[in-house]
From TrEMBL:
It catalyses: prephenate + NAD(+) = 3-(4-hydroxyphenyl)pyruvate + CO2 + NADH. GO terms for molecular function: NAD+ binding; prephenate dehydrogenase (NAD+) activity; prephenate dehydrogenase (NADP+) activity. Pathway: Amino-acid biosynthesis; L-tyrosine biosynthesis; (4-hydroxyphenyl)pyruvate from prephenate (NAD(+) route): step 1/1. The keyword Signal does not apply. One of its GO terms (biological process) is tyrosine biosynthetic process. Residues 297-366 form the ACT domain. The keyword Ribosomal protein does not apply. This is Prephenate dehydrogenase. Belongs to the prephenate/arogenate dehydrogenase family.
Amino acid sequence: MQKKAAVIGLGLIGGSIALAIKQEHPGVYIAGTDVDEAQTKLAVSLNVIDEAAPELEKAVKDADLVVLATPVATTEKLLVQLAGMALKPGAIVTDVGSTKTSICEQADVLSGKNVHFIGGHPMAGSHKSGVHAARVRLFENAYYVLVPNGLGSSEKIGEIKDWLQGTQAKFIELSYEQHDLLTGVISHFPHIVASALVHQVKGMEDEQAWVTKLAAGGFRDITRIASASPEMWTDILLKNNDVMRQLMEDWKQQMSAIEQMLAAGDKEQIYQFFEHAKSYRDGLPAKKQGAIPSIYDLFVDVPDHPGVISDVTGILGRTGISIINIRILETREDIMGVLQLTFRTEEDRRAGMQQLEKHDYESYIG
Ligand SMILES: NC(=O)c1ccc[n+]([C@@H]2O[C@H](COP(=O)([O-])OP(=O)(O)OC[C@H]3O[C@@H](n4cnc5c(N)ncnc54)[C@H](O)[C@@H]3O)[C@@H](O)[C@H]2O)c1
Ligand SMILES: O=C(O)C(=O)C[C@]1(C(=O)O)C=C[C@@H](O)C=C1
């Protein structure tokens, strides 16, 4: 009998998971649903799902796998709704949320239903939202955290890895507490810092109009993630509340230590602060291993004249480098524009950068 997967929430992550399931298991029938009708329609027209179910109950009916891919607070509510619905005996219910403790605890509502809950979190993504940004290879080589709770037997761990094999991610198992602590440090807290930096610039803008014009490479790099979905990040912070507040304390101590170094004009200490950070950062796993994002964008400064886009795409095309997306970002003082090119792999991006440099185009990874 044909297997069925149900994906609830057809955004960046739900869409990418659906594509990965289809790639590895072409015979599987995928039903999906989203509260945003436009996303559901787009998911069908992009062949991300086979069927748009009008509601949750229809989507999950007879499903062997249910993937909850909504913002984390919504996922908890959906679990409660699922508890009141007919689910296929033996089905696996999983989620993709960025926090795990409250979701895994809430999943206990499914006990007694003869289904298995295994929390999940693919550790890759982007600041983009929506199914149009979904990619079959979004999670390639990234870590995919699985958090079994009492409802997930080890036999089902093997089964869920098989379902998600098409992600080409590397599966690891963690407890939910450990997951939330680690992702708090390397993912959630950095989002607070990025957004706070943006607020700092905005606060200065009225008196210092130049500030936004000068905000270039470094500011752009460190604040990219501030463009992510506010709904998603509000939920994440609230659900990882205790960890966030502990990290905030650590951060304040670190800031005050730097303040003291500055007050004392302590050149050696300041040097050590940067030196230690550099050598640790330089030793972190390469992009492909998932600690750092798997989105292969390249930003190219282009003069504002007709034909420049076809020149850039021509250079890449002639050397066999394919791009999967192109966007014009902004015009700088009417003389320069920025093209955002998205590549399928890091190798393509590097090769593209080299080719463009040969033709005197300046490009950078943003
Ligand atoms: N964006 C990332 O980088 C990333 C990476 C890993 C995990 N996650 C997690 O994945 C989940 C989804 O994030 P995303 O980036 O795909 O967001 P997204 O905004 O692209 O997609 C979420 C979708 O869920 C839909 N939705 C909301 N409430 C719903 C409901 N009640 N029923 C059905 N659909 C509903 C929204 O309309 C939206 O289309 C979040 O829990 C997030 O924490 C995100
Ligand atoms: O690359 C980005 O834009 C991301 O923010 C991806 C990122 C992360 O912080 O690394 C964001 C949230 C997820 O839960 C997992 C991955």
